[in-house]
Amino acid sequence: MALINENAARRSGPAVREIYDALRHRILTADLMPGTGMSEVPYSEQFGVSRTPVREVFRRLADEGLLRIVPQVGTFVAPIQLRAVYDSQFVRETLECRTVTLAAANAGGRARDDLEDFLTLQRRAIRDSDLQRFFDADDKMHTYLIGVAGYPSIWELIQGVKAQLDRVRYLSLESGDWLNRIFEQHELIVKRVIEGDATGAETAMREHLQSVFLTIERLANNKPELFEGSLGPHVSNASKS
Amino acid sequence: MALINENAARRSGPAVREIYDALRHRILTADLMPGTGMSEVPYSEQFGVSRTPVREVFRRLADEGLLRIVPQVGTFVAPIQLRAVYDSQFVRETLECRTVTLAAANAGGRARDDLEDFLTLQRRAIRDSDLQRFFDADDKMHTYLIGVAGYPSIWELIQGVKAQLDRVRYLSLESGDWLNRIFEQHELIVKRVIEGDATGAETAMREHLQSVFLTIERLANNKPELFEGSLGPHVSNASKS
DNA sequence: GTCTCTCCTCTTGTATACTAGTAACCAAGA
DNA sequence: TCTTGGTTACTAGTATACAAGAGGAGAGAC
């Protein structure tokens, strides 16, 4: 699994790494829509390599829940499973709320400067309406906070889980005002971390992450064809053995 | 990563699945010690298959942090990285403490019966000194509690993270009295979940998981040659960009 | 004795050929 | 018209062959 080791596919040959990054990005940004057929041969031709590295990439993306490999039939872009999205949100929220608490306890003067730099980056990205750059700066800030908490490597794990959330985020194509609201939430988080207000930071982080989650539920209601599984909240399931 | 989709290697051909299970178990139980060389050819002969499925298994285990693939050189059983162990513990503790809180809120009459069944299984395993059976029942109970909380699929994620902890657990070869202590902790958790005492259940779970952690530090002190990286606790790292 | 260069062997990375299973299509019959 | 049978095309799974790099052993020079 992704924790522990540096980056997932980055250890392999250059072909694998490149193809992995490209395909993952195309899936997350919904350039490849859920359900799209993905058989190995066309992509090996497209990237100018043999089936082997493409196959390795497919396998890895399937492990991440982004592809679905059906033996002897084909490989398809996985539908967005609402259950998986809910679970991913739960994991991310639980871990990041805990780490931001620790971050607030740990943050020193240097962290203050660094965090303000991240906010500046985001402010500029909004000014230039550069969504990708904003998302990058967003990710970097979350990564940084987890590092300040003392557990930098778990960002890798969150990254994997977050893939499901990002897919929805890109699909919902949000703009303008929404970015400002996210940014204000970031400001509040940073403020409380710098102040050392652990409880307040946790609250701010939870509200932040949950507001992103609202986007998801809105999309699930508007475009149910992209999803698989019911929308209902989890029910206590005490009947399993 | 591993969340979202059912089991990791279970989707592949029978060869891959079988080899994956076998090798993973051998690594976790320290039958294959950290540092052992693992080149592809001998194992393909041993399992009577070609390099391809073995290679796929190696890559998957490398993703889990159990193998380390060095291109053009060889593949080795990964050393136990203390940092990774600490991080794994953090993730598991954070997630399971949260889920047990929810479980305590959700648990109904059926859960009560099921949980008591799990305890009975464990009691018998201890009576028979059957370590493997105890570990299995242990895992099943944790899985069940996460299911009651409403997020059954995140057990997959914890499972992956837990691999690092399990390696240490098997290496330290604990016995007798230790099992009883674990069992008592389980009893306390179950008791509080059934009572609906969310806070109490969380506390019990945290103490339970952290006690496993003590084992780790003991082993790290006794057999440092199996480990890689320093033993010190995490330090706030606010210097990263 | 020691250092260096070369070559050989072993490793993983990649390409290609072969196997086997699925599904869709089409035709023949009721 | 519907059903059923077989044929065909396509898929992923596996085996094997080849390429490229790392590392160690051994020979030679100093």
Task: Give structural notes.
Two copies of one chain form a homodimer. Chain A is mainly alpha-helical and 241 residues long. Chain A folds into two domains: 70 residues, Arc Repressor Mutant, subunit A (Orthogonal Bundle), CATH 1.10.10; 148 residues, Four Helix Bundle (Hemerythrin (Met), subunit A) (Up-down Bundle), CATH 1.20.120.530. The first copy, chain A, is built from nine helices and four strands; from the N terminus they run αααβββααααααβ. In chain A, the strands form two sheets. Chain A has a two-stranded antiparallel sheet. The longest helix of chain A is centred in the middle third of the chain and has 25 residues. The two termini of chain A are 26 Å apart. The N terminus and C terminus of chain A are likely disordered. The structure holds a DNA duplex (30 and 30 nucleotides).
Write the layout of secondary structure elements.
The structure is a homodimer of 241-residue chains.
Chain A: H1 14-28, H2 40-47, H3 51-63, E1 67-70, E2 74-77, E3 80-81, H4 82-106, H5 109-127, H6 131-149, H7 154-172, H8 177-195, H9 198-222, E4 227-228
Parallel strand pairs in A: 3-4
Antiparallel strand pairs in A: 1-2
Helix pairs in contact in A: 1-3, 2-3, 4-6, 4-7, 4-8, 4-9, 5-6, 5-8, 7-9, 8-9
Chain A binds a DNA duplex (30 and 30 nucleotides) through α3.
